[in-house]
Amino acid sequence: MFKFLLAAVWISAATLGAVLYSFQTSQAARNATPLPAFFGGLDYVRTPVISIPVVKEGRVDGYFLARLVFTAPPERLEALSLPAEALLTDELHSYLYANPQIDFTERANIDLDALRNGIRESMNARVGEELVHEVMVEQIDYLSKAEIRDNAIRRRLPPQK
User: Fold this and answer.
1) Would the N or C end of the chain have less CB density within 10 A of its end CB?
2) What is the spatial distance between Cα 133 and Cα 139, in angstroms, rounded to a whole number?
3) Which helix (H) or strand (E) holds 104?
4) Exposed, middle or buried by CB within 10 Å (0-12, 13-18, 19+), for 120?
């Protein structure tokens, strides 16, 4: 009988100790600050491929294609009332149409740093605070109408032997 009583007390003490330990560790996990994301706690937002027609003298001269990545604080991105990708796409269209001096036909004259900084500054000005910290270019291309036509013709022709 004494062994049975001693075993019951031991099991109760072990169970109580396990419950107290698990409760303390769960409270410590809740109170701990979350680890920051890479790049100082900023989230990376990747846009889909954005296609913008380049208009010269009232006609479409070609298409500017870009895939961009930008960094922003996650709590500010969640507070936006519209998707961040849509905001960046709209601001990229507005920025390129407002700056006709950017000539994509002359690839040597394109200043990527000025383009990235201009997009970042115009987006932050539109939001009214520093939302975007960095704009990075993942892909950037310019296709003229002639290049698009050549590619379309090549797809229609059967392969030559």
Assistant:
1) C
2) 19
3) none
4) buried
Of 89, 106, 107, nearest to 51 (Cα)?
Answer: 89
Distance of CA 64 to the CA centre of its chain: 19
pLDDT in tens, 69-108: 888 888 888 888 888 888 888 888 888 778 767 766 666 6
Tokens representing 75 are 């709590």
Task: Look at residues 128, 29, 118, 37 and name the one whose alpha carbon lies nearest to residue 79.
Answer: 128
Rg of the chain, C-alpha, whole Å: 29
Q: Where are the domains of the chain?
A: 1-32, 38-154
pTM over 0.85? The answer is no
CA dist 153 and 161 (Å) reads 17
- Architecture of the structural domain at 38-154: 2-Layer Sandwich (3.30)
